[in-house]
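Sample intake sheet
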Amino acid sequence: MAWRVLITKIPKSKTLTPKFPSLVSNPKPILSIFSSPFSTSFLITKTPKKYRKKCSKPDSPRTKHVQNPHLESILQRDSYFRFVTRSKSFLSTQPEHALRVDNADKLYREVGFPGGRKVSRFLQRHPTIFATYHHADNKMWVGFTEFMEELLLEEKEIMNERESDRVNKVRKLLMMSKYKRIPLSKIHHCRLLFGVPDDFRDRVAKYQEFFRIVMEDDGKRILELVKWDPLLAVSTIEREFLVDEDRVKKMFKFPVKYGKDLGLEYDEMKKLNSLNTLPMVSLYSDGWRFDLWSLEEEKYRVGVVHEFLRLTLEKRASIHHIVEFKEEFSLTRETYQMLKKQPQTFYLAGTEMNWDVFLKDTYDGDGVLIVKDPQVVFNDRLRTYAQMQEGELGYGDDTT
C-alpha cells in the first residue's frame, strides 16, 4: 500500500492554528514520520573481539596472590579442624559432656559444620575424640572418648597453671581500651584466641583488686579496670626498642611525601622517613583523641594491633577478632589497608574480605611459631590425635 501525501496551498492572507504545536516547534521531515530509515546492520560499528586489546582484570577482594604458603596453610589447617575445635568447646559446657545427635544436627553453627549435613559424617572422621552411644531413652547421643576426657583434665591443669598470665592479658586489654572497659561477652567470644578459660567469667570474682563487673541497663555485663599498673603499661615495641633499637626502626615505615625534584638518594630517603617513623605513639595513652587520619593516629592504631597480636596465643588474629574490639580500640574500616602498608611486620593471609594477620617475626621460615605457649603445644597434640583412627592410638601415647 502506497502512502500519499497531499499538500494543499494555503493563501498567505490566512493563518491556521496548528492542532499539534509540538510538531510545529520540533518539525520533522515528512518521510521520517511515515517511513523507516535504511538498515545499517551491515556496517561494522565495533572492533571484533579477536582484535580487541586484552586488559588485565583488577584484583578481586575475594582472591589474592599467595606470598607465604606456609602461613596460608595454617588457615587451611584451621578450616579442616574447625569441627573438632568448636565441638570440643561446645560439648565441654554440656552436662556430662554429652549431646543428642539429632540436637547436634540443628546446632551446626555451634558444633562447627556446614548446615544441611549430618553431624555423624564428621564424627566418623575423629574416632579418638568423639564417641556415639545409645542412651536409656533409646536415642543416639554423642560424647567424648575416655582418652579425650583425660586430655580435657590435662588442659584444665594448663589453664590453672597459666591463670595469672591470662589475667594479665585481660588487664592489658582493658588498659589498651578506650574507656578501660570491655563487655564480658567479647572476651568470652575470643577466649580461645588468648587462652582464657571457659569459666573466666566466674573466676573474675577472685581478682577484685583488678576487675569489677558492672551491669548495664540492658543486662549486659561489662568488665572494668579497677587499678592501673604502670609495669603492664609498657608495650612489646617499647621493650624491644631498649634491646635492639635498629631492629625496631625497621619494623614500621611511615614515609614522607616529597617531590621527585629533590633527587634524594636511598640513604637520604631512609633518614627522611625515619623522621616520621619515630617516635612511636604509646598505645597505653589516649591515642584515640588524635585527629582521624593524622600520622599520630595511624601510629597509634598500628601499635594497638601489634600489641593485640602479641597478647594472642599464636601471635595472629582473624578479621572477626579484630572487628570484635573495633570500638574499644578505635579501629576503622581501613584497618586492612593500614596493615598492608607495614609488610615488614604484618603478613595478611587469606583475602581482603576474610583475612588473618600474622606477626612475621614470631614465625620461622617454615611457618612454625618460634615460642609456643603450653596451650599451643596442647592444641598441636590434639590435632595430631584427631587425625588418628581406631587402633592407631593406645592409652599412654605421648605423641607430640
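Comment: The chain has two domains: 69-144, 150-381. The longest strand covers residues 130-134.
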